[in-house]
Each structure stands twice: as structure tokens, then as C-alpha cells.
Amino acid sequence: MRKTTPAAPELAPAPAVQAAAPHAGADAPIDLAREVRFYLQQTPRQLPSRFLYDALGSALFDAICHLPWYRITRAEVQLLEQHARTIGQAIGPSGRVVELGSGSGEKLATLLTHAGLPGVHAHLVDLSDAALARSVQTLAMLPGLAARVTTHRATYEDGLQALPDADAGPTLLAFLGSNIGNFDAPGAAALLRQLRAALRPGDALLLGTDLVKPERDLLLAYDDPLGLTAAFNKNLLLRLNTELDADFDLAGFDHRAIWRGDASRIEMHLVSRGAQQVRLAGADLRVDFEAGETIWTESSYKFEAAGVRQLVEPAGFGQRQQWIDERARFALTLFAAV
Ligand code: AVI
Question: Ligand 1 atom 11: the closest Cα is on which residue?
């Protein structure tokens, strides 16, 4: 019987930075096939969470952000509204804002509007053309907002490297939505070092992190009564059926969310309802599932407010301010590069 409750083993020889980007629909098929083949043969079986975000997966995630049980987005937008002035002071009107994983552009629009920085230069880094187009549209539609917008269709790493030095006023790097929580500890540390390398002393990092909260609330957020998160998770199998000519029976798998307090993370799994065989022609793979065997599709780490500083400062930042939505248990933290 395969081990289905991993305590420690993270995605072992994973790419240097395990992408958590919510918009990874642009993966080349060859990478999808290679990675799916690799991860599905691990013990426990896994699929990288960035593959959740094809066009349908991204739309389902946007819908999840409206669920009453998933409070991250609303809490963050509210904190941005309340503290935009202070955040804006980190760069001033001649600065620039870089957002990693821009999504719909709503958060950046909120920040710029409320910060009183209507003409700032905004750089959006995202893997999804659709997300970038939507963000540009959102920013263009806001009355009084005249931000110059440059899009970078790239991984976080490549996007950061592509930032021009020439126009670089003071920079605010925004990494929101608790996307950092989809990285395991070594992945998060490596990513934060990359973020720091793209900044100069005095530049700022704005980080959104979801905080530890009662298990009951976490399970409702990741296994919602409407079944949207289950659909978001199962869509990964649909994607493999479409893109890798696989024959997953979607009714043969259940969505399961598990809170692992010892590791401070919610895990999403797809659990095989019975013994079954699945073929993935495009990945040249056949998988025999036992009843109850799972595919681990996502980790979403939750933080203590004080732990955010401990996570980020070793990468070369100093914490300036932290704002917490106590009801949603969500933190927005402003750092300066040192
Ligand atoms: C994008 N990311 C921060 C979300 C999260 O909460 O980990 C993805 C998500 N997974 C299930 N619901 C939302």
C-alpha cells in the first residue's frame, strides 16, 4: 500500500522554485507531459499545483475568491484600501510597482487608487496572457488612474530579470494573495532571495499571507459546501484528459482537504474511490491506483503573524509594518530591502 499521508517529504527533486503561480496555463505540452510523468510516479503520487490554472482552473479560482468561506481576497483588498497611503509612501510618485501574479488586476488597481499614486509605472508579471490582458483592462478602466503599464508574460524569475533598470525609481514589489503559501519552506526561501536580488536597498516588498486559524474555518475554505474547490481540484484531471490524452474517470476521484497542523498547511488531494487503472497516452504512462490512494495536488501553508518576519528577513529584508485582519486571520506585511 502506498503511503498517502506524507509528513515531511516535499516534492523532492522539484524545479529550483516550485511554482505556485495561479496562472500557469501557458505550460508547454512537453513540460506538462514530462512533469506529470515524474510527479505521478512519486510516493505519494503528486501533481504540481501550478497545473491547476488552465483557463477553466483560473476561472474557478476567481469564483472561489468570491466564496463566503474563502476570505483571503476580500480581507486583502480591504487592508490594501485602508493602508494604501502608507504603502504608497514607500515609493512616492516617481516610483514603480511590480506585481507578481497579477490575476485580475483588482488588487493593484485598489492599491494605486487609494495610495494617491495614479501615474506610477506598473509592471505586471504573469504566465497567463488572459490574466495580463484582464489586469491591463482593469487598470485602464479606473477613472483618474493613469498608470503606465508594462506586462511581462513570464515566470516570476524571468519577469524579475526582465525589469528594466533604466526607469527604476524606488520599487514596490507586491506578492499578494498568500501565493507564497503554495511554496514549501525551501521554495519560499529561494523565491524570497530572488525577489531581494531584483531590488535595491530601500526598495519595498508587500507580502500577503494567510494566517493559521481554526481547522473548521480552513476546511470550509478548502472544501466549500458549493463544491467549487472540488471542481477546481478535479479540473486538473480534466486538463490531463484533454491535454495528455488521459482517461481519468472524474467520478472515480473525490476531492479531499486535510489540515496538517504539524506542518501548518492545508493539503488538497484527489482520492481514488476504488482500484482503477488510468492511461495517460501523452505522457507515455499507465498508473494503477489502489482504493483510497491519493494524488497530492496542492499545499497551502498558513503562517503565524510573527513567523512572517522570520520567513522573510533572512532573505535580506527588514519588516516595516504589518496589518492584520483579525476576523479573516490574514496579514499584509511591508518590508524594506536592506
Ligand atoms: C492561489 N493560492 C494562494 C490559493 C490558496 O489558497 O492556496 C489556491 C487555492 N487552492 C484552493 N483554494 C484556493
Answer: 222
